[in-house]
Structures are given as C-alpha cells and as structure tokens.
UniProtKB/TrEMBL annotation:
It holds the Pfam family Methyltransf_19. Keywords: Methyltransferase, Transferase. GO terms for biological process: methylation. It comes from Actinomadura geliboluensis. InterPro entries: SAM-dependent_MTases_sf, SAM_dep_MeTrfase_SAV2177_type. This is SAM-dependent methyltransferase. GO terms for molecular function: methyltransferase activity.
Length: 269
C-alpha cells in the first residue's frame, strides 16, 4: 500500500450506495438501512436480481482465472465494489502468484474496507477515481508504477457501465480505457439487461437506484453492449447471460428475454 494522501471521506448512511446494495444482495453485512430498503425495493420488483448478482460474482472468478491461464499477470478492476469472497486479487494470485491488482472505486466505504484488507498485500492496492475520468485512472501514480502497458492487462468493468447514461458516452469511455492495452490483453464487461419486463418493474428498479449517488440505471440491449467490445475479439460463448459465460464454451445464443446481466470477455487485438 502507498502512503498517498486521501481526502476526507464523507459516508452518508441515509443515502443508498450501489456498492452497499450489491453487498446486501450477496448476503454481506457492510450496508445500512437505507441500502437495504432500496435493495428490497429492487428485489420485490425483480426477485431474480439475487440470482444474477451472484452469477456476476462467479463470472469474475471464471474470467480472471481464464486471463491468468492465458498469461495475464496484471489486473485493473474499475468499480470494484466492497471486498467479499473471491476478490480479483485472491483469484489472480492463487492462479498466478506475483500477479499485480489495482482496484478503482469512488465510494468511501469501498476504499476504506479495501485499504484495510490489502494493508499487508504489496502486490495489490486501491485507488480513488471515477470511471467517467479514464485519463485520471490511467495517469494515477499507482497505476503508472504498477501496470506495464507494454504487457497484457486484464481490464474488468463488471456491473458498472449501466450507471453511465448515453449522454456521457460510455462507449467512448471504454475505448479510452482500452486504448493503451497491449495486444493479448482482455476486457471483461457485465451490463444490466432489461429483457422482457413490464414498465412498472423497470420503473421500480430505476426508482431505487435513482436514490443512490450513482444515479439512474440504464439497461442496454445486446447490440449496445457488444459495441463496447470494439477492438477486441470475443472469447468463449460471446455475449450471453452472465450465468451462461464459460471460457471454454462454444458460441451460442442465450435467452435474451430474461432480465439480468449480459456478459462477455474480449481479447484485445
């Protein structure tokens, strides 16, 4: 861990946090009443949110394991959320000891928990930055010291891009993050997918997330999510429902009528 100066953090227990809601979905304890109330509203409207949130966590483990098996030894996880079981550094360093991992988040509780967890891990750190500012992330001193962009990098953007509205150009943000990655790097994305749900369900979900500091949630279709992978070749089954992704699966078409997360991993070419 570095000795960098950290600005004063303000933790507001009355305002729901996306990271703390996610922690609640996973059965964690790092959440407040406001987080649980917002999350319960989502669960009431869309009960399978618990299923695909846990599937998203399993995707992380499978994708990182695959990247490590293919020679990736440095990982950048943006919008990492609260530490839980099978974090990126645990998966990567178990598969390939010596792997370097940087977590990026802008939530004060995430930063505090991650720094405490990683205090004795010299290969892993966390930096405070926002996905909307890719140059700030790429230019951060910890990133510049720990990531060698002439070598393959595993870039993870899991369950984060659906908080970026179209007017903030999410595809451009992804392209700017991908630009310095060496060939042989990998990009993993999971993204909220509306599926065939009623307008009332969508309104309830968006209302709950609208109370968070992250703002509204923007579900996107398969074509829109696929566009984020420009400059890469999709591996495994391609873009599928998150629970269906396996590194060794043949290409197939998931049931896109189900709401949840779509997921894919692309190899930078």
């Amino acid at each position: 861990m570095s000795g960098e100066h950290h600005p004063e953090w303000v933790i507001d227990p009355e305002t729901p946090s996306v990271a703390r809601m996610y922690d609640y979905y996973l059965g964690g304890k790092d959440n407040f009443a406001a987080d649980r109330a917002a999350a319960d509203q989502v669960v009431a409207a869309m009960p399978n949110v618990l299923e695909f949130t846990r599937a998203n966590r399993a995707l992380l483990s499978r994708a990182v394991t695959m990247m490590a098996a293919r020679g990736v030894r440095q990982f950048l996880d943006i919008g990492s959320g609260l530490p839980t079981q099978e974090n990126v550094h645990e998966v990567a360093q178990r598969a390939a000891p010596g792997s370097r991992v940087i977590y990026v988040d802008n939530d004060p509780i995430v930063l505090a928990h991650a720094r405490a967890l990683l205090a004795d891990n010299p290969l892993t750190t966390v930096v405070q930055a926002d996905l909307r500012e890719p140059e700030t992330i790429l230019g951060h001193p910890e990133v510049k010291v720990r990531i060698d962009f002439t070598q393959p990098v595993g870039l993870l953007l899991l369950a984060i891009l659906h908080f970026i509205p179209d007017e903030e150009r999410p595809a451009e943000i992804v392209a700017r993050l991908r630009a310095p990655l060496a060939p042989g790097s990998y990009l993993a994305i999971s993204h909220g997918h509306r599926g065939e749900v009623t307008q009332d369900v969508e309104d309830q979900v968006r209302s709950a997330y609208g109370r968070t500091g992250a703002g509204d949630i923007i579900p996107r279709g398969a074509a829109e999510v696929t566009a984020f992978f420009a400059g890469t070749e999709l591996v495994g089954p391609g873009l599928v429902q998150v629970a269906d992704w396996r590194a060794d699966a043949e290409p197939f078409r998931s049931d896109m009528s189900r709401p949840g997360f779509l997921a894919a991993v692309g190899r930078v070419v």
